From TrEMBL:
Assigned protein family: Belongs to the AB hydrolase superfamily. Epoxide hydrolase family.
Top-level taxon: Eukaryota
GO function terms (MF aspect): hydrolase activity
Protein keywords: Hydrolase
All copies of domain AB hydrolase-1, residue ranges: 28-128
Organism expressing this protein natively: Rubroshorea leprosula
InterPro entries in the record: AB_hydrolase_1, AB_hydrolase_fold, Epox_hydrolase-like
Keyword Hydrolase: yes
Gene3D superfamilies the UniProt entry points to: alpha/beta hydrolase
UniProt-recorded name of the protein: AB hydrolase-1 domain-containing protein
Length: 206
């Protein structure tokens, strides 16, 4: 991780921290969105793998997390703010499209972003997360990586919703990969496997 660049951009008056590796451009940019209560560092293994594969890997700290400034009124912060931040980050990177990879809370942000800005997402992936929108459908190719012991599957109705295929009513182009004996932190428990899955997915859709 010694080659990681730590940059800052200003969005709506807040200084946001970006960790970056690699030098890809255009659709070869991969944006990693962390979960709660994590920071960019939770994606450290994936940043290295993606950058080594020729992509530009970027992982921000959300507003109020890590090295990013907190909003002046945290109680009024919404997912809309996080989505606006993602748009500003992509604009700052000077690209039109990025692959978006989200985990936990980041999966919801990726979900909303893919729906609201479909022209900016060639494909997106979630690592262990719920789906947040039902209309319109998420038409972009999608990948769900989930540990078989993830507590998300214990949410009422969630395991049936995913395993029965009902989720494809919302995300018709979804591929799901289950990782046996892995929990909510599979990207740390089995980084090589998760890296392989992510890289295989984004290379197909590059």
């Amino acid at each position: 991780m010694d080659n990681t660049q730590h940059n800052f951009i200003t969005v709506q008056g807040l200084k946001l921290h970006l960790a970056e590796l690699g030098s890809g451009h255009g659709p070869n940019v991969v944006l990693f969105l962390h979960g709660f209560p994590e920071i960019w560092y939770s994606w450290r293994h994936q940043l290295v793998a993606v950058a080594n594969a020729g992509f530009r890997a970027v992982a921000p700290d959300y507003r109020g997390y890590g090295l990013s400034d907190p909003p002046p009124e945290p109680e009024k912060a919404t997912f809309a703010d996080l989505i606006s931040d993602v748009v500003a980050i992509i604009d700052h990177l000077g690209v039109n499209k990025v692959f978006v990879i989200g985990k936990d809370t980041g999966g919801l942000v990726a979900n909303f972003f893919a729906v609201l800005h479909p022209d900016r997402v060639p494909a997106w992936a979630m690592h262990e997360e719920e789906f947040g929108l039902t209309d319109p459908k998420l038409e972009a190719p999608a990948l769900l990586i989930i540990g078989c012991k993830d507590y998300i599957l214990k949410f009422p109705g969630m395991e049936d919703y995913i395993k029965s295929g009902k989720v494809k009513d919302v995300v018709p182009n979804l591929d799901t990969v289950y990782l046996s004996e892995r929990s909510h932190f599979a990207q740390k428990q089995s980084p090589e496997l998760v890296n392989e899955l992510i890289l295989g997915f984004i290379k197909v859709h590059s």
